[in-house]
Amino acid sequence: MDQTDIVHVVEVEIVSDVVCPWCIVGFLQLRKGLEMTGLGARIRWHPFELNPGMAPEGQNLTEHIVEKYGATPEQSQASRAQLVAIGQELGFAFNFTDETRMVNTFRAHQLLDWAAERGLQHPLKLALFKAHFTDARDVSDINVLVDVAEEVGLDAGPAREALETNERADVVRQKENYWMQNGIQGVPTICIGGKIVLTGAQEASVYADAIRASAQIPAV
């Protein structure tokens, strides 16, 4: 999605959580949809916590799914297998194990908010998806977050300071509340061109049609 030499750039707002597998799936399908249209996008990510009350130590993923959604371990395993297959089709590796954990993401959202002002929110978001789902890194841990920030070109010192002082905590809470007050109850929620809102991970063709409609370009 290189914005160089692009005639039309679509504004895209994505409300998501970094531990939501369907959020990265939705983004990858969106990216395919953009490629189908030949248009570019200016993407902004917004915070949503699937589990705002998650304890600092996190929770085993299978236990969490059984407890929160009432799924059996077998159903949880089947869902993971489905995600692995979808990820392979889209070029993303989901590496689930029996030790995979659900973690608190409030710090990650604070870092993303901080990174937005430095023009690196988007690469940081994708790096955090990879850190959690592919590399099994704890994205609730300050040291991990600082390392990931540095990997995408952010300065480690200021990133650590922003996290340790919680300077973005109030702002992130306000943004989370804003989206919830506007009816966002599940993620991903993707707003295209300020006109079209799609909830849940859709097929690339659905995003392509929405992008064309937003840009007032006839479907092909």
UniProtKB/TrEMBL annotation:
GO molecular function: oxidoreductase activity
Domain of life: Bacteria
Name under which the protein is recorded: DSBA oxidoreductase
Domain DSBA-like thioredoxin: 12-211
Species in which this protein is naturally found: Marinibacterium profundimaris
PANTHER family named in the record: GLUTATHIONE S-TRANSFERASE KAPPA, THIOREDOXIN SUPERFAMILY PROTEIN
Coiled-coil intervals, chain numbering: none
InterPro entries, per the entry: DSBA-like_thioredoxin_dom, Thioredoxin-like_sf
